[in-house]
Design brief:
The protein is mainly α. The chain has helices spanning 24-37, 41-86. It has one domain (20-86). The longest helix has 46 residues, at 41-86. This is Toxin-antitoxin system HicB family antitoxin.
Length: 88
């Protein structure tokens, strides 16, 4: 099997095996999701966990952009102050 992101062939050594306990209702939702998508339970869990972690990545990007914006605003404000000081 190939990794969809890298195209590299992956083996069982590239995977971590674990057990998960969850409420029955959540398990039912998960199995319904897998059946509706015609995918395995394992694939459903990986898909949903990956989607759940994506907002964290987006939040980090937004926070970084906000910092850059704050820096730009401060530079502009400083230039305005400098020009006002030089004005007659």
């Amino acid at each position: 099997m190939a990794d969809p992101k890298t195209g590299r062939i992956v083996s069982q050594d590239d995977w971590k095996r674990t057990q998960v306990r969850m409420p029955q209702e959540l398990y039912d939702d998960l199995t319904n999701y897998a059946e509706n998508k015609n995918i395995s339970l394992n694939t459903a869990m990986i898909t949903l966990m990956t989607k759940g972690l994506e907002p964290t990545k987006h939040f980090d990007l937004v926070r970084e952009s906000a910092t850059i914006t704050d820096d730009v605003i401060e530079k502009i404000a400083n230039k305005i102050v400098d020009r006002m000081k030089k004005a007659p």
